[in-house]
Amino acid sequence: MAHGWGLSAKLIGYIAAGAVVTSVAVGIARVKNEREHLGNLANYSGQNMANTTAAGAASLVVGYDYGNLEILARNVADQANVMGVTILNRDGRIMSQTVAGSGRQYRRYQAPIVFDGKVIGSVALDISTERLEQAIDELYVRIVIEQTIIGLILAIIVYLFVSRGIVSPILRLTSAMEATINKGEPYIAKQLDVASGDEIGRLIKVFNKLNQQLASNYEKLQSKIDLADQALRNKNIELIARTDELENALEMLSSMATTDWLTKLPNRRQFDDGFEQMLSQAERFNEPLSLALIEVDNFKDINDSHGHAAGDEVLRQIGAFLKDSVRRSDAPARLGGDEFAILLYHTGEKQSEILVRQLFKKIKAHVFSFNGQKISVSLSAGIAEYSAANNTKQSLYFAADKALYTAKHRGRDQYALYSDLPKEEV
């Protein structure tokens, strides 16, 4: 018998709650219908008043009878809820305007003034809707309050009926689960009491069986986890070591891809990438940019006379001088062999000449030697500035290279500016 009545009988309380919600919804719908109905009536009345005023003003507008138009406008404005009356001629000019009140909520009704079948003007009436809105709001509040009170009463009744049969068992089940979670335990240590034979009682029985299976499976799983955890820790140690090795290898590969191994300066690849960016900035912001190409004079003779190790040492020391001579905004690089380059941002040819001159001075003052033997070292350089004629990487390279060729052709151990070259050499 208990099982037959069960949860179905207890759902009657929820049906009652649904009835409350439905009644409130019906009440709200009633208010909306009343609002629409009253709004339609107000619109009908306002439009009729505008039409009537337009009919009365027709002969007065034709006769330009401003005095009677003012009287007509005041009489209409004296009507209930009328806030203002405006009468316009066919050109849209105001012939009469009366303001009877003010308010935030109003509707405007317009009607054409017709005489002998022709539109000779128009009438505009502003009619307040504040009283209508206030009455509808009061009706809305009253219905909602009434339905809410009824809903609260029915809710109390429903709660008294269902709390013992549904709420209390579910609350005991929830409390037992929450207590287990708060203690950090994986399952409930004891079985829950079954107090009824309905659906709630069956739910608790099923929960108890699932809880028993969970406890058994947890014990088996925990033993496997302990074994796997130890193996995972060992693998993790190996993985960390391998990761460190890979990171070091990647760092080395990255450095090798962008840095010259001998001088530790940026290589040709990194220099070209930076060249494109600095050229774009110079073009965008209309700022000067210069390129200096530098070569070691008679570098082949140094290798032949003192050996390639001596040549490498000379290149390494020149690279160090380049690093010390340039600014943070400049971009020095070894392009390959005995050729170096410097991109000087925000710098024209004359300023670049100062930097190259200082570099030459340091090279001349420095004593290059290898295995106790002095090595004679000098440089040649060509300088070119970004301009309308040299506004690409290729053209700027060509101009600086042309200046470098001129410096070498003139006897080496000197520099040349592209802008100073004779026209026949450009």
Description:
- This protein has 426 residues and is of the alpha+beta class.
- It folds into three domains: 2-133, Beta-Lactamase (2-Layer Sandwich); 186-258, no CATH class; 268-425, Alpha-Beta Plaits.
- The chain is 62% helix and 17% strand.
- The protein contains ten helices and eleven strands.
- The protein has helices at residues 2-10, 12-62, 66-77, 130-183, 199-258, 268-285, 299-306, 308-325, 349-365, 393-409; strands at 82-89, 94-99, 106-115, 118-128, 289-296, 331-336, 339-345, 368-370, 373-375, 379-385, 415-417.
- A hairpin with a 4-residue loop joins strand 1 (82-89) and strand 2.
- Helix 2 (12-62) packs antiparallel against helix 3 (66-77).
- The model is unreliable at 1-8 (pLDDT under 50).
